[in-house]
UniProtKB/TrEMBL annotation:
GO MF term list: methyltransferase activity
Pfam family for this entry, one: Methyltransf_25
Organism of origin: Caloranaerobacter azorensis H53214
GO biological process: methylation
Protein name stated in the entry: Methyltransferase type 12
Length: 259
């Protein structure tokens, strides 16, 4: 199932680029400050998607970036986006199979992607690729449950068409963050673990919100009939409440240094 989920993003690459939220600028400043990278430092990005996080570092002047992306369409979009940046390299490969040719990096980053990699494989490989003073800056968008009337009505649709996606059964943000902390600590490969959180509200029209959901792997794996019925119902509910929906956004950043 993990392999199937991580491959669904490639089907909606352009929609992913258009509708997925970007990450707050403060997050990139925090990674730079913690890792103490310089403008000529080498950065490894695991699961770059369409280059949303890549752009955050480029905007700050850090352009020596090696991007690994499993999805061919996603990798193509990232290559096109940074075609003028000769020091940004994009490899269409899984991280597990990527041949690094002895490269060493000062910083490894991953944006809402590393959970698709077996931690018993992924973290040791990252540690091997890091310079002796290297750092990781892994971050994820964390789902925040909402309980206003609009979301309560939407939740009824999930119970009907996609009960496995009913978010009342999902871990809380605190549980998600603590689980990731535990995974990193149990590797015994990193030290000085630090967690930072960034939160804000985004607002979507009904069409935009459906487009956003359509980029989520678990929604894409629903049977087509159920997915279409779910999306139509959600759109109708949002329209009933005025045509817009507020979504709470939370990003958790995990910083650590190589042991």
């Amino acid at each position: 199932m993990i392999k199937e989920r991580k491959e669904t993003f490639n089907e909606v690459a352009k929609e992913y680029e258009r509708i997925r939220p970007t990450y707050p600028k403060e997050l990139f400043y925090d990674i730079v400050e913690y890792s103490e990278i310089k403008e000529d430092s080498e950065i490894l990005e695991i699961g770059c998607g369409t280059g949303k996080a890549t752009q955050g570092f480029v905007d700050l002047g850090y352009k020596n970036i090696t991007c690994i992306e499993l999805g061919s369409e996603l990798a193509k979009l990232t290559k096109e986006k940074f075609r003028k940046e000769r020091t940004i390299k994009v490899y269409n490969s899984s991280f597990e199979e990527w041949n690094e040719d002895g490269s060493k990096f000062d910083l490894a980053i991953s944006a809402t992607a590393f959970h698709f990699i077996n931690p018993e494989v992924g973290y040791p490989k990252v540690a091997r690729l890091l310079d002796e003073r290297g750092s990781i800056g892994f971050f994820w968008t964390v789902h925040v449950q909402s309980y206003d009337n609009l979301y309560l009505d939407i939740r009824k649709l999930y119970k009907k068409y996609a009960p496995d996606l009913d978010d009342t059964k999902m871990p809380t943000p605190e549980e998600v963050i603590n689980k990731t902390k535990d995974i990193i600590q149990r590797t015994n490969l990193f030290k000085d673990l630090m967690v930072k959180e960034y939160s804000w509200d985004d607002f979507y029209t009904s069409d935009e919100y459906i487009s956003l959901l359509n980029t989520h792997s678990r929604h894409r794996l629903l049977p087509k009939k159920d997915r279409e019925a779910l999306f139509k119902g959600i759109k109708d509910i949002i329209e009933k409440y005025g045509g817009n929906i507020k979504k709470k956004q939370l990003v958790a950043l995990f910083l650590a240094k190589k042991l």
